[in-house]
Structures are given as C-alpha cells and as structure tokens.
Amino acid sequence: MPELPEVETVKQTLQAKLVGLSFKGIRIFIPKVVQTPAAEQVEKMIAGAKILKIGRRGKHLLIHLDKELALVIHLRMTGKLLYCPAGEPLAKYTHVIFYLDNGDELRFADMRKFGRLWVVPRSALGELPVLKKLGMEPLEDSFTSEFLQKELPRRNTRIKPLLLDQGLIAGLGNIYTDEALHRAGLHPERPAKTITSREADRLHRAIRTVLQEGIKHKGTTISNFVDGNGRAGNYQELLKVYKRAGQPCCRCGKRIERKKVGGRSSYYCPCCQRI
Asked: Which of helix, strand or coil describes residue 73?
C-alpha cells in the first residue's frame, strides 16, 4: 500500500500538472469506487470545477476545487493516479477518467479495486469519517518527541502495531515503520509502555528521517507504485531491513529476520533490535 512518502510524491507530481486546470467531465467504469455521493452525481458536481491545490492527509490525496468542493482519493493497495496526455492508450484496470480542459486526462487505475474516492464540500473535509479518525501528521511541527513520550507509556500494545494505528500517527505503513524501528534500535514486539523517554526521542527522529528520505527519493517501489507521471520511486535501493530477510544487517552483519507481528510481516535485526 502506498504510504505517506508515496502519496506525498504523487501529490507533488500532480500539483505541477493540475493546478489551474478544470474538470470538463468524468467517466466512471466501476461505480463502487465512488463512496460519496452516488456515482451519477459526481459528474454534475465537478464539471467545470477548477483545481486550486493538491494536499495530503495521511495516505489520502486531497484535490481542492473551487465551487467549495474537494475530491478525496485513497489509493489503498494498488491504486494509481496518473496524468495522461490526450490519446494515450487506456491502461488495464482504469476505473475512472477525469477529463481536463486542456484535453489531457487524470486517470485512476487499481488492479485490486480497493481504491476509493469521495467528493465533499471543502468545509466538511474534517468531518469525513476516513479523515476524521486520523491521528498526528508525523512531518508537522505538532508531532514531537514529547508526544511520543506521553503516549507510549499509556499503551499496552506492541510498538509495531501501535505505529501502524492510523488513529495515532497518520501515514505510516509497514515499510517505514520497519525502517524507523531499525534506525531507532527497537524490536517490533517491544511493548510500547516499556519504551523510555530517550528511546521515544530516538524513535521520533527515526520516523521523521525515514519519511523525509522516502519523499526525497520519490517513494518506494516494491511492486507497482508509480508517481503521478508514471515513474517508479527509488527508495527501495536504500532500505535497511524491509524485504531483506536473510541478508546481512548494514550495522552489525547479522542476518535480517522476518516474523509476523500483529498479523503483518515485520523485518528486523535480532542483534540491533533486541527485545
């Protein structure tokens, strides 16, 4: 699933293409992709709407329109949002086409059909259930070491599942959680309440660093992630533990191990990340 750096990368690439253009219309091939309003209402709502800016909240893209509207898109597991020149052949699994007033198209494709979109009043963005439940944005100033030092002692769960909880920190997924825990020297099964203030500070810095690095390198392409221009990221070349089971740790040389933690595959160094 695209995580914060991947969604931020899509946001940045599309912002350069879309801002200032308007939607002429929309074609929806699979209506269930549209969560709200009903699919047949979406075209009436966004026809002629001008794209003002593109934002992000957690793993969600927010396309701000005039007419006081916003288009919210969640790519889920395999979704792609691509800017396509007019006449480019339609890719397989294309579910929605947004027609732009310059003749080009914005296409939403999703092999697994899990991606979703919403059109809502901009004033109601904060009340949209999928956004309302999201926690702290880890790259904003409000996400501090003190926040973690306060929250972690109150939690009985293990640190890996806790960091994946979007209600605590929005945007973290399997890749960047594993990388941050390795960088901070914390085992994914470590009880959150046992993490010291010094360790929480280390984890805070690790989270921000791996996310910033992921954005700098245009995201991680393990299977099919591409940005808004259809280009793959390259942060996978810099990963220290994720998907590296059996390979030597870059710090100590011990073999990276993989195990299920909270139902998710987790990669860690048993030497650098002792339980």
From this structure: strand
DSSP string of 76-117, one letter each residue: TTTEEEEEE-TTPPPPTTEEEEEEETTS-EEEEEETTS--EE
- The residue extents of the domains of the chain are 4-132, 145-268
Taken in order 31, 34, 37, 41, is the CA torsion positive or negative?
A: negative
Which candidate in 11, 59, 202, 240 is catalytic?
Answer: 59
Q: Is 59 a catalytic residue?
A: yes
Active site residue 213: no
Predicted structure pTM score: 0.96
The token pair at 112 is 């697994």
Report d(CA 60, CA 75) in Å as an integer.
Answer: 7
Architecture of the 4-132 domain: Alpha-Beta Barrel (3.20)
CB atoms within 10 A of CB 133: 11
CATH of domain 145-268: 1.10.8.50
Tens-digit pLDDT profile for residues 3-54: 999 999 999 999 999 999 999 999 999 999 999 999 989 989 999 999 999 9
Could you please report the per-residue DSSP string of 196-253? -HHHHHHHHHHHHHHHHHHHHTT---SSS---TTS----GGGG-SSTT-TTSBPTTT-
